């Protein structure tokens, strides 16, 4: 006869055992399995030579795992629940600490904490966040510790002027001409975690003072599984997304898609005092805007374990965005007596669309039996962006001034190729780790700007030759790096150096050509960590970073959307170099951690935007190597888990910055920047969870200050039907709309600006998770005749 073995009797628990410092695999570690709270061992297995283990043939139930190895502290993983719907549990990387670095046994649960604090990286586990469900990467980043997202969707790390966004360890700014557009449609349900690196190791590009690395979900459960979600808000925003994955014996196929609609509303006002030797006059400006955005993100991935020593991963990602905008501006000209002498009204219409396609291929080869691994990666991307805007300017008074009508058609193309070859190998009986590699990045950017003014006499548009231009940018970067990681007796020392050869050239259709002399840069990095007294660690890092000027700062095309406040790039910019050092101290308990950090950096040739006002009152804004900057920061980062159901985290930073400039005496300033955030997440009875976050920022700039702003969010989620269906309600800024205030001061002007947007919102979302596991049929032969 034959029968089907119940899927629940084929439950699997798998994972990888690694060292907490250095992340090297631990072979032959003992993995003991317990059922429920039973102290009797159910089974014992060992991790293989690469640290992997797998326990199969498990029934439905609750389990716990104990991992142990000589010289390391025992680690428990509790509350591993196997159900008929979810019977393949991947515990991920299980980090064992040396006996000198921990007080006693480490106990964790299968549910990862929302925030993990390491000596050189902060990890935000998106899957553990209630607020992340049904949102996008932009929304998630707003709640990541030490990260700030501005009104345009650009994310930066606290205290860093230049932050780069990576996706799966590869720079996303090589993949698109507008990172904010990419993050605005990337669904949070496709993201596994976000890593914040203030001092990136040599393996990463030397560009940028800090890196945000977004790690995407790959899909790992056996069989077919996925999720479908929908989110809607009272402000008119909607977001739908789906993800599915199928894993066979030696391959995995996963894919997903998302579509988002969003309505943005806001208003702002600014007041500028123009100070000249013979007169003082004033410009007051009042604006309102409405934007409607919609976009989609679609991705497909394929992982293939060719042999036990070879694997191939392919992935594609396609983004599409479209925007319609309408805004109005009122400009008041006031004389020295503050009497309005002129009022100009301007209506702005915008219509834009963009699309971006990225293809990634990564080949991994295990080169020996002790863990040596080589990785070859290729990334190809192409992006196009079309932006059409019109500006209709009329005068309420005096009536003798003529109206004007202008339209700008801006088309941008962005193509790139990235190649990397990495090799890492354990040495000296796997005590140490050696890494080295090569990389090549090619970037091409074409920007075609057509400006036309309407001729009221001939009733036709005439090309404005002064503003119309084409900008062509080419960038080639060849890199090589090597690093060595030494560990012994609670000490960890990692040193490395990265060298980058940069060749950049760009030109304009007007005939101007700029060939930047190729230059070679070296970026050393050193980190030292020491665990002692079984519950403390001390760490220090040092690195050199570079901020390269790119097309957004180099392009001299003039933007006169606001004729009183024009802006343009500076083709004569030079790279800026930063030396930065962190000193951190960590104290860890069973339910808490506290990791204060002191950071110091000094930068030369700092690239920042600055503004001058001409005698005619027109403000010109551009970029320049404004001078030097010294920054000293104190960061307090902590986590407290009073129970295994409640987790709180917080961070607070005070940053003292000092600018020195020979370019403009108004840039010689210093001051404090303050940033902080608090968060709490709770697992409540009846399968309910709650989470809230509060963020504050007040930052100094080279020419002023972005004054204090506060944003908050709250969310609650309840699960049904064995956790397959979840319902969530969340609110953003329930106490009022987010305000942004800024102050700028130059040699002959003082400016203050205030703006608000429709950040106050209530969102409702539904998410359904499904799993379909293949059932193995076993045929039992009939019993022999007696």
UniProtKB/TrEMBL annotation:
Xref: InterPro entries: Beta-barrel_TonB_sf, CarboxyPept-like_regulatory, OMP_b-brl_3, Plug_dom_sf
Q: Report the Pfam families cross-referenced here.
A: CarbopepD_reg_2, OMP_b-brl_3
CC terms in the record's Gene Ontology section:
cell outer membrane
- Compartments, as annotated in UniProt: Cell outer membrane
Please tell me whether the keyword ATP-binding is annotated for this protein: no
All copies of domain Outer membrane protein beta-barrel, residue ranges: 367-768
Which keywords annotate this record? Cell outer membrane, Membrane, Receptor
Q: Which domain of life is it from?
A: Bacteria
| Protein name as annotated | TonB-dependent receptor
UniProt lineage: Bacteria, Pseudomonadati, Bacteroidota, Sphingobacteriia, Sphingobacteriales
